[in-house]
Write a structure and sequence with these properties.
With about 260 residues, this protein is of the alpha/beta class. The chain has helices spanning about 20-35, 45-55, 70-85, 105-135, 155-175, 195-200, 205-215, 220-235, and strands at about 15, 35-40, 60-65, 90, 140-145, 180-190, 245. Helix 1 (about 20-35) packs across helix 8 (about 220-235), helix 3 crosses helix 4 and helix 4 runs parallel beside helix 5. The relative contact order is 0.16.
Length: about 260
């Protein structure tokens, strides 16, 4: 740890799923600026390559579909090969969005959302836990959502998936914090991203209602989440584990 700047991530290797765009890319940019080497993972090679061109020489990418649960260990190994060093920070960010009334959401659709956000995140976390325990050093982050705190219509599967992180973070922290591995989550509010645009497209009433809810009167930027992620992964948060940090401009407590 740099005693003069405990927010630095020098000598850390971060693996960020869904790191090619939006919040994932914002987290990657902030972690690189803080000194970390970053591996981003996703399904679109072209997008990942563009992101790495923006991130610079401290970055690399792995094309991977996290829903292939039996290949989670291969992603962990590939990230280690890319950086010639084990992963010390995991950011479970990859996800999918389904906007549909609960009555119209099929079991298959519900399961697909849970599989991406919850089951796949657990599989990758499970693959990296042994190495982190062996080194008595690691930070695991889950990107939740303010939809886990408040009722947002037409996203029942997404809300359920993001709410599941509360229990996962608490339990993982109870198991791992005594072994030197901290586990936390961030709950973003409305952030400018491709997923947000898709959710609000063609729904001006919903968009107007959103802006009346945000106390700060604006949407956030991916880097707002990135800076929170740097804090939680850094020595500055050495005594923080098992929490979910809202980063939402005051939306979840808005009037």
């Amino acid at each position: 740890m740099n005693p003069e700047d405990p927010f630095r991530l020098d000598n850390e290797v971060a693996l960020i799923t869904g790191g090619g765009t939006g919040i994932g890319l914002g987290i990657a940019l902030c972690m690189v600026k803080a000194g970390a080497r970053v591996v981003i993972a996703g399904r679109r090679r072209e997008q990942l390559a563009l992101a790495c061109a923006e991130l610079g020489p401290q970055s690399s990418f792995v094309v991977h579909d996290i829903t292939r649960l039996d290949e989670a260990g291969e992603l962990a190994s590939a990230a280690k090969r890319e950086m010639q060093s084990p992963v010390t920070i995991l950011v479970n960010n990859a996800g999918s969005h389904l906007k549909r009334p609960a009555v119209d959401t099929t079991p298959e659709e519900f399961h697909a959302v849970l599989n991406t956000h919850v089951i796949a995140a657990h599989a990758l976390t499970r693959a990296l836990i042994p190495g982190m325990i062996e080194r008595a050093h690691g930070s695991i982050l889950f990107i939740s959502s303010m939809a886990a705190f408040m009722g947002v219509p037409e996203i029942v599967a997404y809300s359920a998936a993001k709410s599941a992180y509360f229990g996962m973070v608490a339990t993982l922290s109870a198991e791992l914090a005594p072994k030197g591995v901290r586990v936390n989550a961030i709950a973003p509010g409305w952030i400018f991203s491709e997923m947000t645009r898709n959710a609000l497209e063609g729904d001006p009433v919903r968009k107007a209602r959103i802006f009346t809810r945000i106390q700060m009167g604006r949407m956030g930027q991916p880097e707002d989440i990135g800076r929170a992620a740097v804090y939680l992964a850094s020595p500055a948060a050495a005594y923080v584990s098992g929490v979910t940090l809202p980063v939402d401009g005051g939306a979840t407590v808005g009037f």
